[in-house]
């Protein structure tokens, strides 16, 4: 455990090395920073994750002695919708495949991890018998599905905690809705992006942002901002193909949308 404490304190992405995780190096460091600060805020915690796939992002929590329970929820689809306009294909997307990966990391996998297969819309809240302080949403990358995942987390988690979203550059419309929903409920909320595409929503008294590690990431917020924009540059390149440019310029001339007064 001493090695784990040292690696986590150093935000060492080697904690993700045993199982492939669909996250960038910066994403991994951001997730480790959130974990490290969570265990400073509370003496022990429960972690809920929606969209675990093969278990990559569960690794550091499985190794963490302060994480008492992991709740993994996944629909286990072979293909999932995506707001980028295509289906995301998932191979070997079974709970048993994931658990076999995690058993190779820790002999506590079967006792520490509670798995639930299905969509959150079909899962009763009372199946979550231990309220999580920390939730991570990385399921279907559509605004509609992310909203359902958020509502589920909001309703089952502790009053003070955090919900973390991955791939913020895809489900940004939902993220804006999430922040407004919490404000409309009179909840204390603080939201921000961490590199590269990790979106953090602190709810109530759960000041992750006050830690040195996260404060440093926020002071260098150009990293996540620019990487998110670079991801969307493919759409700008597509929209600027000659035929589209011609049509857009023609429309602007007709509507005089390009005239500054």
List the helices and strands and how they pair.
Elements: H1 2-9, H2 25-41, E1 45-50, H3 59-63, E2 67-74, E3 79-80, E4 88-89, H4 95-103, H5 109-112, E5 113-117, E6 134-137, H6 143-156, E7 161-166, H7 172-184, E8 189-194, E9 198-203, H8 212-219, H9 222-239, H10 242-255
Helix pairs in contact: 6-7
Describe this structure as you would to a colleague.
There is one protein chain. Strands 5-2-1-6-7-9-8 form a seven-stranded mixed sheet, sandwiched between helices. A two-stranded antiparallel sheet has the order 3-4. 42% of the residues lie in helices and 17% in strands. It is built from ten helices and nine strands. The chain is an alpha/beta fold.
Q: Main beta sheet: strand number and arrangement?
A: 7 strands, mixed
Helix and strand string, N-terminal first?
HHEHEEEHHEEHEHEEHHH
- What CATH first level would be assigned? Alpha Beta
Strand percentage: 15-25%
Shape: globular
Counted by DSSP, the helix tally is: 10
Separation of the first and last Cα atoms? 66 Å
Looking at the overall shape, the CATH architecture is 3-Layer(aba) Sandwich
């Amino acid at each position: 455990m001493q090695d784990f404490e040292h690696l986590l304190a150093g935000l060492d992405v080697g904690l993700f090395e045993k199982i492939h995780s669909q996250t960038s190096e910066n994403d991994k460091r951001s997730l480790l920073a959130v974990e490290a600060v969570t265990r400073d805020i509370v003496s022990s915690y429960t972690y809920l994750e929606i969209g675990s796939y093969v278990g990559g992002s569960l690794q550091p929590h499985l190794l963490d002695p302060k994480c008492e329970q992991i709740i993994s929820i996944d629909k286990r689809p072979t293909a999932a919708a995506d707001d980028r306009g295509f289906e995301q294909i998932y191979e070997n997307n079974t709970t048993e495949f994931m658990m076999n990966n995690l058993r190779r990391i820790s002999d506590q996998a079967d006792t520490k991890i509670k798995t639930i297969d299905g969509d959150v819309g079909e899962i009763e809240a009372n199946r979550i018998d231990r309220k999580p302080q920390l939730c991570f949403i990385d399921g279907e990358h559509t605004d509609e599905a992310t909203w359902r995942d958020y509502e589920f987390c909001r309703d089952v988690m502790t009053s003070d905690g955090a919900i973390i979203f991955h791939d913020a550059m895809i489900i940004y419309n939902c993220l804006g809705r999430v922040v407004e929903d919490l404000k409309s409920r009179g909840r204390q909320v603080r939201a921000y992006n961490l590199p590269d595409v990790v979106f953090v929503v602190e709810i109530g008294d759960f000041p992750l942002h006050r830690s040195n590690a996260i404060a440093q990431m926020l002071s260098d917020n150009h990293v996540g901002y620019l990487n998110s924009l670079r991801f969307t540059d493919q759409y700008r390149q597509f929209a600027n193909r000659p035929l589209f440019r011609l049509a857009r310029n023609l429309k602007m001339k007709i509507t005089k949308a390009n005239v500054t007064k």
